[in-house]
Amino acid sequence: MSMTTTNELTTAAIPASGSSVLVSLNQVGKVYPNGTVAVQNANLAVTEGEFLCFVGPSGCGKSTIFNMITGLTSHTEGGLSVLGTTPFQARRHNEIAFVFQEHTLLPWTNLLENVTLPLKLRGIPRKTRIEEGQRVLELVGLKDYMKVLPRQLSGGMKMRVSIARALISRPKLLLMDEPFGALDEITRQTLQDELLRIWQQDKQMTVLFITHNVFEAVFLSTRVVVMTPRPGKIAQVVDIPQPFPRNETFRTAHEFSDYVRLISGALQH
Amino acid sequence: MSMTTTNELTTAAIPASGSSVLVSLNQVGKVYPNGTVAVQNANLAVTEGEFLCFVGPSGCGKSTIFNMITGLTSHTEGGLSVLGTTPFQARRHNEIAFVFQEHTLLPWTNLLENVTLPLKLRGIPRKTRIEEGQRVLELVGLKDYMKVLPRQLSGGMKMRVSIARALISRPKLLLMDEPFGALDEITRQTLQDELLRIWQQDKQMTVLFITHNVFEAVFLSTRVVVMTPRPGKIAQVVDIPQPFPRNETFRTAHEFSDYVRLISGALQH
Amino acid sequence: ACGNNNNSAVSAGTPEGGKVSAKVTTVTNWFAQAEHGGVYAALEEGFYKDAGLDMTITPGGPQISATQIVASGKAEFGMAQADEILLARQNGIPLVALFASFQTNPQGLVVHKDAGIASPDNLHGKSVYVSSGAGYWEYLKKAYSLSDVKQMAYTGSAAPFLADSNVVLQGYVTSEPFEMKNQNVDVDFLLNADFGYNPYGNVLFTTEDYLKKHGDVVKAFVEATAKGFEAYKTDYKTINEAIQKESPDMTTEKLTYASETMMPLVFDGDAKEHGVGYMSKERWETLAKQMTDTGLLDKMPDVSEVYTDEYFTK
Amino acid sequence: MAKQWVPAAADSGRRLDTKTNSGSSVRNSQKTENILLKTFRSVFPPFVVFLIVVGGWELVARAADIKPYLLPKPTDIVKAAADNWSNLMVSVGTTVSEAVFGFLASVVLGVVLAVLLAMNKMIEKSVYPYAIILQTIPIVAIAPIIVIWFGAGLNAIVIISFLISFFPILSNTLIGLNSTDQNMKNLFYLYNATKLQTIIRLRIPAALPYIVAGLKISCSMSVIGAIVGEYIAGIGGGKGGLGYAITVASTRLQTAYLFACGLSAAVLGIVFFLLINQLSKWLLSSWHESEMRN
Amino acid sequence: MAKQWVPAAADSGRRLDTKTNSGSSVRNSQKTENILLKTFRSVFPPFVVFLIVVGGWELVARAADIKPYLLPKPTDIVKAAADNWSNLMVSVGTTVSEAVFGFLASVVLGVVLAVLLAMNKMIEKSVYPYAIILQTIPIVAIAPIIVIWFGAGLNAIVIISFLISFFPILSNTLIGLNSTDQNMKNLFYLYNATKLQTIIRLRIPAALPYIVAGLKISCSMSVIGAIVGEYIAGIGGGKGGLGYAITVASTRLQTAYLFACGLSAAVLGIVFFLLINQLSKWLLSSWHESEMRN
Ligand SMILES: Nc1ncnc2c1ncn2[C@@H]1O[C@H](COP(=O)(O)OP(=O)(O)OP(=O)(O)O)[C@@H](O)[C@H]1O
Ligand SMILES: Nc1ncnc2c1ncn2[C@@H]1O[C@H](COP(=O)(O)OP(=O)(O)OP(=O)(O)O)[C@@H](O)[C@H]1O
Ligand SMILES: [Mg+2]
Ligand SMILES: [Mg+2]
């Protein structure tokens, strides 16, 4: 079994050879104004084309790391670079997309409008917007609900709309904060497969993905970042050097359960 | 293997012998004003002391059934009785508690106040409220956050506060809509164990529980209700006649995976 | 100097000895000013007290309607122009005029000296700021065919007048010329009385009901007020000081100017012969006819009910 | 086992679920009936209260023999209105047009200014105090200047109506624009929206409930503004509005007609309010709690 | 590979995260400096605008030789205020007390009535139109009655101030009470909360942003109301408020003093507003977007 474990320092130092580093955290720390130390000494280098999963107990600082990467909150220690620039500059490239932990849909407008919002903000013409909107809504199984307002949806359906909105802009860097948490197993697996397909199609896309499901983390990612709480630290980064496309065979393979057990162990630690 | 599957009609007709029926659905249907048929011909009798899990694909009507049982929405067909009376009367007994799919915390007040709200509404004195509040916050691992406002919490922490609030009132009937969806595996398992412990302590408590996690459903419940979408129907009710307390031994037992496979099969169908 | 006596009417009575004893209130038609001099003199010099009246004087204001306050019984006596009393009676408010402060009404129009306006005939094409609904303006409009005059709402500000020499402003001969002189504006004054419209000014009145029930109180009031005006004529300087206490923003010069200007308007005419405050049937009839002609009154009233002169015995 | 079956849609409990109305399994003919019943139910209570208020007023006035010049009876007022009907209608017409112009100016300038202020804290801090001055400085104090600069009559009146009704819209809109949900602002920020896009596509729609609340206050204030304007800067004569009519009735001591004018103004205010209310329903009913059917 | 390291808390990008301020890793001494700087920043821009406005006014007035009785220069106004300082202060004092009483009455009655209306749709439908009438009926029309019923002076003035400032609070509070999030209403409903509990523990706190928006409008309107009240139903004399002073100054052609009074009223309005603003900050800053620091 070719399982490698790198600790945070070496990971930051040695990016995967050849590809460029998209996101890099160098001893990053975050203290909220009320004194909560949410993240401490985080080191990480994400190279282009990776699929990186974050796992860790509730409240360990996963969302905080995402917020620092997107520039929604500033880091209070260390250095941080995204797409080769500051987080605040990076978003200007229009190459980042994300799914928030809580679906954020505009209540006054229908699903199609909600999903095509990123295109509208970029001034893409209406016809393209509708086409693309239909495409991604189809992807998440909500094509029939195009004209429906968000409040008429179930919890899982709202989350799927958020996912569709993130996928519509064909981003270079995609951040997803527990996107499949509210979904049943089947919908979840369908979307996992879709996500991997999209990611593979376009080898340029890099995905950062928060999940509570260790199976999901192992199934999807090239590397899994395991975090520990209080203060949030990166405990371990586990490589999953298994070939893509992955399918049911991988899910039932011995390596799969080995990885799961390894990560679960790191979490329990 | 002593696995029994009863279809919806017989389930409604034959409640478990001896105990009284707490919730009963008789050919219940729900059509939303916009024409969506959310639930159709649902038959179900929940007897006292049961732990009933609902599984089913996103948007199949699980939350809608909960809303009808709590009287938040009216059923448009069939007959429905809760605690031997109408859903609208039932809540007056102060014996129902619930966790919504989306955490519903009052943003202007701290966790302790949020968690003790049900007691405050019943006029329980402050001292008892604080004691009970600390007890349940401890249960969900948030005792240190008593004085914190909800917006300073992570997604999973907010959900745990909602759970604590439901547990504080020691209800007779507890409805939980995907309470553990936003939680990591460890927190989830801790809370599962806690929930089962509380449920067993007081053999009178009946739990209705929505989850997307088939493992969780099998581990927790005495019966699993499998739903299918469009229009939402109860496809199958699976008995899990396994002894409590359940623990890791059960999780790794052969029966466990058999149940999981059976239910997953019913879902895929 | 404020507050109303709700029970004053009840306390009015005539104890043995024929001397009245009553607690009464008079509402004037504006903040305390020289034009009210007679009433304040009667109060200051103790004439009301001597007559057995425990008098309170309540100053009026822009929207304080003395007619309504007296009609409601919150005060016994009020002050208004003669035409207002006729209007009040037409609208069912049974007022009776008791005493006319001004034989000649001080109201009129202020005009710029260089505008060359000597009579309402010259008003064509000008803008005139008058209180909406004022009786004299209806009369002038009709009598001088002034339909092409631009009529504007007067709200107490003289600024539009200062800004434009084609503007004409309503005013009191006792006040506005003085203010304009202070601003170095040369003005002329067209007194309404000189052009045919001369209702008695600042008429003191009460209700028919009160008059019937408390004739002796009314008599005492009228006599004391007349004495007050006589006293004011000679001693206006001291009384003005009392008025200044009520209206501290009034300057002595302004009060003096007003006092001096008002004396002939109060004491000339019929007052010379019959005493200050006197009213004649002819004058009331003339006014009633003018108001009927302009449509302010629906029909000629019986003027003998409008006023009483039984307290003028001279 | 005391089980009690509840037939569908026959439960009388309080329904919090605004998503449902009377239940769509009901047949169509019944629906029409329901609508009639609903209209009746919504019109009936105010009507009853109206009858009680007006009837009580009439009775008390008659019983206590309140003089009509102090407080006219409803019948007196109706008679006065009928006697002067054509005058009254001319006055109402004049006031309506002034109020509408004033209100429109308030809406446009109030919202536009609020947007400008919301876009920049610095501008807000510098300019907002002057907006408060505009609202607090007594109109009587500046009326002469308004008249001199803009001319008496319609212009001045519209400006006064604007000055009086403008602040509630500005203030409410500004607070609304500043109340946008942080998550949604983050969404727009991350999708690289320009300030203008954020305002138009997010902050204004999200502020609509506040804006509409401002409109509801302002619409009737614009009527008051028009009347005050007529009162202090109006032109007398034939085409005077309600403000002029009120002054005249007041000096002429025609209390009943005065009340007729005053109540006409109130009715105008209510009509304006109901129109805005409809607008509010139309804008918000599909998504905001404040206007959802229940 | 053009990587650019960003040191912590030194990024100048727009910060949407209201949760953070300048970063708490900064040392304490720097913090104090920051506070000073912030105060300076928040005071400076309005001050500059003030200078520009007043200076511009003075210059234009001098250059265009605008007559002081039309639009007095700032220096004229200051001089007039200084000359009449003690009178002015007395007037301001009187008006302040009237406005405060009127405003307090508005707040209490506005909120209480809104709560009553919010608790029952039927009452709302029946009573609300009369609230609109109260706000729309021209004060001049009913002033004589107010004076007769409540007596001229303080009583009448406070009532007029109340009538003018009451509706914004009522209207905003009502809309706020009706805007409560459906999920939270469900929560209270299921926990069997009484109507009163729901109002007190849920709907009023949730409506606070709207209520405060109403207060912000009303507070300066209560000043206007007091002035209108004095103008209409005031008593003159030594203790007259700003409304009286304005009437007198107006008839006396003391335009500069008239403006001094008008501006005093405006300043009063601003002071009231700032007080309410502080209250709003204190009530909402911990949880509502509209008052979070950023
Ligand atoms: N605005 C804030 N102010 C203060 N503390 C905060 C704030 N937001 C988050 N925190 C704290 O920071 C810590 C990490 O929060 P974060 O949201 O990053 O957790 P998470 O890993 O995403 O958890 P979850 O899986 O439950 O979503 C928590 O302890 C939380 O209480
Ligand atoms: N207010 C509403 N108006 C109209 N349709 C609705 C409304 N609420 C829910 N629905 C529809 O009813 C169906 C069932 O919704 P429900 O919320 O019960 O699903 P669910 O089983 O809880 O799904 P999830 O697991 O995603 O939460 C969905 O198709 C949804 O679109
Ligand atoms: Mg999180
Ligand atoms: Mg659901």
TrEMBL record, chains A, B:
Pfam families: ABC_tran (PF00005)
InterPro entries: AAA+_ATPase (IPR003593), ABC_transporter-like_ATP-bd (IPR003439), ABC_transporter-like_CS (IPR017871), ABC_transporter_ATP-bind (IPR050166), P-loop_NTPase (IPR027417)
SMART domains: AAA (SM00382)
This protein's record includes keyword Transport: yes
PROSITE patterns in UniProt: ABC_TRANSPORTER_1, ABC_TRANSPORTER_2
CDD domains in alphabetical order: ABC_NrtD_SsuB_transporters
Domain (ABC transporter): residue spans on this chain: 23-256
GO molecular function, one term: ATP hydrolysis activity
Keywords of this entry: ATP-binding, Nucleotide-binding, Transport
Name listed for the protein in its UniProt record: ABC transporter ATP-binding protein
Organism field: Paenibacillus protaetiae
Lineage: Bacteria, Bacillati, Bacillota, Bacilli, Bacillales
TrEMBL record, chains D, E:
Subcellular location(s) of the protein: Cell membrane
InterPro entries: MetI-like, MetI-like_sf
UniProt source species: Paenibacillus protaetiae
Keyword annotations of the record: Cell membrane, Membrane, Transmembrane, Transmembrane helix, Transport
GO terms, biological process: transmembrane transport
ABC transmembrane type-1 domain ranges (all copies): 92-280
Highest rank taxon of the organism: Bacteria
Name the record gives this protein: ABC transporter permease
GO CC annotation: plasma membrane
Bilayer topology term: Multi-pass membrane protein
Gene3D superfamilies listed in its UniProt record: MetI-like
Family: Belongs to the binding-protein-dependent transport system permease family.
Primary subcellular site in the record, as a coarse category: membrane
Disordered, as annotated region: 1-26
Transmembrane segments: 43-64, 99-118, 130-150, 156-177, 210-236, 256-276
